[in-house]
Specification:
Blueprint: H1 3-31, H2 36-46, H3 48-67
Helix pairs in contact: 1-2, 1-3
Length: about 70
Amino acid sequence: MDQRIIWKLVLLLGCLPFVIPIVMGLYTMTIESWELFDWLVFWSVIYWPTYVVGILCIVVAVYKLKDR
């Protein structure tokens, strides 16, 4: 597989920790009495390491994609 495609997948993987809470928050708002902001705060407190890993994946992927 081309390395450029792999780094694009790593970039997408790095964006997932930021997209999943929004989708899950919107879903939770429809079936429970949560507010979106409450859900995002709850998610960010519990799953903060996923944001760190996501940021690292984004930084490394952008660096590698710009390098080529």
